[in-house]
C-alpha cells in the first residue's frame, strides 16, 4: 500500500476513534441543564429578584408546543437548516464558514449550530477564544446525546438574547411588537429571527435601517428554503411594521450594568458557588428608572456620544443605581466603574475644603486675571479661564467656585502647597494622584465611582464609607457574607457643611459677573450641592443632597474633542434625574451645626446685605 494511503487511513482511523470517544463521553457523562452555570440569584433592595443565573428560573419559559410551527421552521431554516440531521456539530457548515472567513481575511460567517448556540447560552460566555469554542463543542455533543431535538430547540428559543435585556422569543415578540407569538406576521417573524445575530446592530429600536436590511435577507433565505412562497415574501416586504410604543420599551436591560458589576464583585470574593447562592444588593429599581429615563431623554442611538452615571447613598455608601453607558445593548462596557478620565473642575471642592481647613473663609479673595505661574523647577504654567474671561479684580471663594475660575483655584493650590491636595486625594484612595500645578484643575484621572467616593463623603457630612453593591450573601449553609458599615470621619463636619452650602453657588444668579454660574439654568427643583467639570474630552456633573449623590459623565470612547453642543448634556441628565427622584415629594437639605453662622451676602464682594444669598461661615 502506498504511503499516502496509509497516512490517509491512519488519519481517518484517528478521527473516527476520537469521534466515538467524544460521543461516548457525551452519552454517559450526564449533563444537567444548569449544572455549569453558577446558581446565583440577585435581589434588589426591595427583595425582588433582579437576576437569576438559571434560565428556566429567571424567565417565562414557553413550551415548544406553544411556539407556532412556522416560527420553529423559520428559525431552523435560517440558523441551522441541517439541525434535525446533525449530531450537534455541522461539518459542512463549519467548512463553508471557514472558507468564507479565510477568503475575506476576517470572520464574516459563524459555523455554530442551534445546539452550539444553546450550549453557549446555558454554560458559557461570549468571549472569542479557542478554549471557549472547544467547551462549546463538548457541551453541544452532550446536549445532543442526552436531549431530544425538540428539547434543544425549545431551550434555544427561550434563551436566545435579543438585546435590551430581553431573553426568549416570546418576550421579544411582546417587547418589540407588543404581541404574542401566535399573532406574529411573517414580516415580524423575519425581523425577530434576525436580531440575535447582532442585537446592537439589528434591533429595530437602535438601527431601523439595518434591521430592515436583515429582515430582507431573512425573507430571501426563507423563500430559498421553501419555508415561504414568493407571494408571501412580497407581501412581507411591503408590510409596514409598527413597533411597540410601551413607555418603558427603551429602558429595558439597563439594570444589566449593575448586575454585571455585582457578578464581577462576586468573582473577587471568597464565596462557595457549588451550592445555591442568594445575593442581596442595594439596587433600587425606582431610582434606576429615574436615571435611565433622564439618559434616554437627552441621548440618541445615532449619536456616538456616550454617557455614564452612578447614584450612591450618603451616610451608607450604598450604590443604588448605575449606568455604564447610554444603552446596554449598544455597549456592555461599564464606563462608570472602569473608565478612568480627567475629572476637570470637579476636583475644586476638595481643594476648597482644604482651604477652609487652613483658615480660609468662603469670602477669602484672590485676584482673577491672566497669570503665569512659575514652578519650583522654573517651568512656567499659564492656565486660562473658559473663553479667556476674567474678573480682573478680587473675587471670593464662593464666586470662584460658582464660575469655576481657574486662576483662583491655581493660586489657592500653590498657596496651600501642592502636597495638600495630593494628600487629600490619597486619603480617598486615589493613588494615581501626583502633585503638580495642574492638579488643581483636575488633570488627575479617576473613574466616576472613585469621584463619587469623594462627593458622597461631602454628602455624608464628612463621613467616608466605602461604596458597596452587596449587603448580604446567603446559601443553604447560612450567611456567607454580611456587610458591616464602618463610617470613617475623613473630613471635619463643620467645614464640610460650609462647603456643601457654598456648592449651591453654582446656580446662584447673584454670582453672575464676568460669566454665568456654571450650573445656572440646570438646577433641579430641589436644593443640591453641585459642581460641573469640562475638559477638552469630558463633561462631568456631580452633586448631592443628604439622600443621594448623583454623578454623570459624557464623552466619546475614543477621546475625541467635545463640541460645545455636548457641554450641557451631563447637566441636563443630572437636573432631570433629581427632578424625577423628587417628583412626588419635597427635597431635603442640611441643618447647620451650632458653630456655623448663617449670613446673607453679596457673593461677589463678600459684603453682608439684607437681601443677599445665604451662605454659611465658621467663627473667625
Assembly category: single chain
Largest sheet: 5 strands, mixed
- Give Rg in angstroms: 30 Å
Give the CATH class of the largest domain: Alpha Beta
Report the span from N to C terminus: 105 Å
CATH architecture of the largest domain: 3-Layer(aba) Sandwich
Query: What level of helicity do the residues show?
Result: 25-40%
Summed up, the domain count is: 3
Q: Please give the count of helices.
A: 22
Strand content: 5-15%
* Spatial ordering of strands, largest sheet: 2-1-3-13-14
CATH superfamily of the largest domain: DD-peptidase/beta-lactamase superfamily
How many extended strands?
20
Structural class: alpha+beta
Q: Report mean pLDDT, rounded to a whole number.
A: 86
Overall morphology: elongated
Low-confidence stretches: none
Could you tell me the CATH topology label of the largest domain: Beta-lactamase
Would you kindly provide a written description of the structure presented here, covering whatever features stand out?
This protein is α+β, with helices and mostly antiparallel strands and 620 residues long. The chain has three domains: 1-30; 53-247, Penicillin binding protein transpeptidase fold (Orthogonal Bundle); 290-617, DD-peptidase/beta-lactamase superfamily (Beta-lactamase), CATH 3.40.710.10. Helix content is 39%, strand content 14%. It contains 22 helices and 20 strands. The protein is elongated.
Blueprint of the fold:
Layout: H1 3-28, E1 40-43, E2 49-52, H2 55-58, H3 69-79, H4 91-104, H5 114-123, H6 130-146, H7 149-159, H8 169-177, H9 186-194, H10 199-202, H11 208-224, H12 230-238, H13 256-267, E3 277-281, H14 285-298, E4 306-312, E5 319-323, H15 335-338, E6 341-342, H16 348-357, E7 365-368, E8 373-374, E9 380-381, E10 393-396, H17 397-403, H18 406-416, H19 418-427, E11 445-446, H20 448-459, E12 463-464, E13 470-475, E14 478-482, E15 488-489, H21 493-502, E16 529-534, E17 538-544, E18 549-555, H22 569-581, E19 597-601, E20 613-617
Helix pairs in contact: 1-6, 5-6, 5-7, 9-11, 11-12, 14-22, 16-18, 18-19
Amino acid at each position: 500500500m502506498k504511503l499516502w494511503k496509509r497516512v490517509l487511513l491512519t488519519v481517518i482511523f484517528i478521527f473516527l476513534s476520537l469521534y466515538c470517544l467524544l460521543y461516548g463521553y457525551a452519552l454517559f457523562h450526564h449533563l444537567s441543564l444548569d449544572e455549569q452555570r453558577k446558581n446565583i440569584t440577585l435581589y434588589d433592595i426591595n427583595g425582588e429578584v433582579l437576576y437569576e443565573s438559571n434560565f428556566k428560573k429567571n424567565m417565562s419559559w414557553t413550551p415548544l408546543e406553544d411556539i407556532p410551527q412556522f416560527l420553529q421552521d423559520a428559525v431552523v431554516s435560517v440558523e441551522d437548516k441541517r439541525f434535525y440531521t446533525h449530531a450537534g456539530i455541522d461539518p459542512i457548515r463549519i467548512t463553508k464558514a471557514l472558507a468564507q472567513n479565510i477568503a475575506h481575511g476576517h470572520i464574516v460567517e459563524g459555523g455554530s449550530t442551534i445546539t452550539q448556540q444553546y450550549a453557549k447560552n446555558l454554560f458559557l460566555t461570549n468571549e472569542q477564544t479557542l478554549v471557549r469554542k472547544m467547551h462549546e463543542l463538548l457541551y453541544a455533543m452532550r446536549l445532543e446525546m442526552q436531549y431530544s431535538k425538540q428539547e434543544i430547540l425549545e431551550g434555544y428559543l427561550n434563551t436566545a438574547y435579543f438585546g435590551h435585556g430581553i431573553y426568549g422569543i416570546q418576550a421579544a415578540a411582546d417587547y418589540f411588537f407588543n404581541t404574542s407569538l401566535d399573532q406574529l406576521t411573517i414580516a415580524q417573524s423575519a425581523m425577530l429571527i434576525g436580531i440575535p445575530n447582532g442585537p446592537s446592530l439589528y434591533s429595530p429600536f437602535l438601527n431601523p435601517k439595518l434591521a430592515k436590511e436583515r429582515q430582507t435577507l431573512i425573507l430571501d433565505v426563507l423563500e430559498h428554503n421553501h419555508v415561504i412562497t414568493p407571494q408571501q415574501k412580497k407581501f412581507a416586504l411591503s408590510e409596514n411594521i409598527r413597533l411597540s410604543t410601551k413607555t418603558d420599551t427603551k429602558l429595558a436591560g439597563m439594570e444589566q450594568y449593575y448586575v454585571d458589576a455585582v457578578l464581577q464583585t462576586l468573582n473577587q470574593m471568597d464565596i462557595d458557588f457549588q451550592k445555591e447562592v442568594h445575593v442581596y444588593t442595594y439596587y433600587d429599581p425606582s431610582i434606576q428608572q429615574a436615571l435611565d429615563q433622564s439618559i434616554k431623554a437627552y441621548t440618541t442611538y445615532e449619536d456616538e456620544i456616550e454617557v455614564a452615571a452612578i447614584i450612591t447613598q450618603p451616610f451608607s455608601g450604598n450604590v443604588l443605581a448605575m449606568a455604564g453607558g447610554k444603552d446596554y445593548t449598544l455597549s456592555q462596557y461599564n464606563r462608570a466603574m472602569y473608565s478612568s478620565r480627567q475629572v476637570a473642575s470637579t476636583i475644586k471642592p476638595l481643594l476648597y475644603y482644604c482651604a477652609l481647613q487652613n483658615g480660609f473663609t468662603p469670602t477669602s479673595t484672590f485676584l482673577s486675571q491672566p497669570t503665569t505661574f512659575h514652578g519650583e523647577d522654573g517651568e512656567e504654567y499659564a492656565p486660562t479661564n473658559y473663553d479667556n474671561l476674567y474678573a480682573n479684580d478680587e473675587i471670593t471663594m464662593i464666586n470662584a467656585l460658582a464660575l469655576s475660575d481657574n486662576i483662583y483655584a491655581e493660586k489657592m493650590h500653590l498657596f496651600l502647597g501642592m502636597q495638600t491636595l495630593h494628600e487629600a486625594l490619597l486619603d480617598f484612595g486615589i493613588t494615581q494622584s501626583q502633585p503638580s500645578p495642574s492638579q488643581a484643575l483636575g488633570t488627575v484621572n479617576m473613574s466616576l465611582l472613585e469621584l463619587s467616593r469623594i462627593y458622597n463623603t461631602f454628602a455624608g457630612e464628612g463621613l467616608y464609607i466605602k461604596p458597596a453593591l452587596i449587603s448580604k450573601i446567603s446559601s443553604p449553609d447560612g450567611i456567607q457574607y454580611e456587610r458591616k458599615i464602618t463610617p470613617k470621619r475623613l473630613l471635619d463636619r463643620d467645614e464640610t457643611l460650609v462647603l456643601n452650602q457654598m456648592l449651591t453657588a453654582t446656580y446662584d444668579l447673584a454670582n453672575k459677573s464676568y460669566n454665568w454660574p456654571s450650573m445656572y439654568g440646570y438646577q433641579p427643583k430641589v436644593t443640591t450641592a453641585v459642581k460641573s467639570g469640562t475638559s477638552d474630552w469630558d463633561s462631568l456633573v456631580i452633586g448631592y443632597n443628604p439622600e443621594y449623590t448623583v454623578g454623570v459623565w459624557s464623552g466619546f470612547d475614543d477621546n475625541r474633542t467635545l463640541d460645545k453642543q455636548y457641554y450641557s448634556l451631563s447637566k441636563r441628565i443630572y437636573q432631570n434625574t433629581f427632578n424625577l427622584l423628587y417628583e412626588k415629594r419635597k427635597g431635603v437639605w442640611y441643618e447647620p451645626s451650632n458653630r456655623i453662622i448663617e449670613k446673607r451676602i453679596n457673593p461677589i464682594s463678600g459684603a453682608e446685605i439684607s437681601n443677599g444669598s445665604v451662605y454659611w461661615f465658621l467663627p473667625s
